[in-house]
User: What shape does this take?
Amino acid sequence: MRLFATGLLVVMAITFVLLRRFAGPEPVWGYVLAFTEAAMVGGLADWFAVTALFRHPLGLPIPHTAIIPENKDRIAETMAAFLRDNFLTPVVIARRMRGFNIAAAAGGYLADPASGGQSRLRAGAANLFGDLLESLDPEKLGGLVKGGLRSQLERLDVAPLLGQLLTAAIADQRHLPVIESFIRRAGLTIEDNEDLIREIIHDHAGGIMRWTGLDERLANAVLDGIYKLLAETLVMPDHPLRGRIIEGLDQLADDLLHSAEMQARVQRLKEEVLANPAMGRWIDGLWERLRVQMLSAVRNPARLMSGQLGASIGEFGAALKNDVQLQLLVNRFARRTMVGVATRYGDEIVRLVSETVRRWDARTVTDRIESAVGRDLQFIRINGTLVGGTVGVVLHAVTSFF
Assistant: This one.
């Protein structure tokens, strides 16, 4: 577009020079000459205006030119203030999101990302999100995300949640396969360690028992009794041992829900886990993997939607697209989440944007803004050339008649 706009200006200038030298006395040439002259003036004026936004025209340090690189820090502050005042206040977010059916839009995209006339818009949004992830400071953005995750984990009341999950699992009989799997695993573990069990019994047996060989018979009896107990527990739904295990799970679920002592123990355990350096390293690794996966997804959405994962995502998208009640729940959750994020982290997000733009050098800021809006700016030059020529024709006609 820059070449086209410059070429149009050059054509006007060459045409003006040729007409000044070779135009005949016919009135029509006066109109053409007036058009080219005014078009050249309009094109030059708009070229100067557009160029002055990003650099010094012809390299000359004319005052009030190279506006964007000279005012980079002020632009960063203005962008941050605009973001804070127009997007990151709870009232604005709630009002704007109330009219959006985010669940239906997300469901339509997940169900069939390549369909519809918005594929270019979606691709552009994905690329913009990818550029944003790559341009923002990974350490500060990661610190913001990890701090938010740790804060949510610290506020999470784990014991009642675990109690509710365990109660629901017992009510739906989903605990039985776990118990049976545990019994099978116990049997296999004992089988793999028979020699160790025999050695322990042999060491604790008296000399007479070892001399008479009763220690070996005792070991066989113990192992046979354990295997029989485990087998009966596995195949008999009303076996006493199975009942005791289920009673223990019921009691554990009740304690998690109602026992202050149990809840305090779980809370202390959670705090110890969060304070462990290994947990910090896990959260760091979790964020980095999440960032890499998000970048991979937005850069190559077709790969994300392939295979079994893609089929599952498609089914979830279809449910989001068609289930009104699910849309209501998701939209409400999204609205409340965004309002909460704006309330707790709005200032941090604004500061992150401002500091990121400040760290860019002037050339980076200029190139990114110009690449985003440069095509439209070149249309200003083209329009200036054509409108200027039209005004020149009108003025020539007015002066000719009056």
In short: The chain has a mean pLDDT of 79. The radius of gyration is 37 Å.
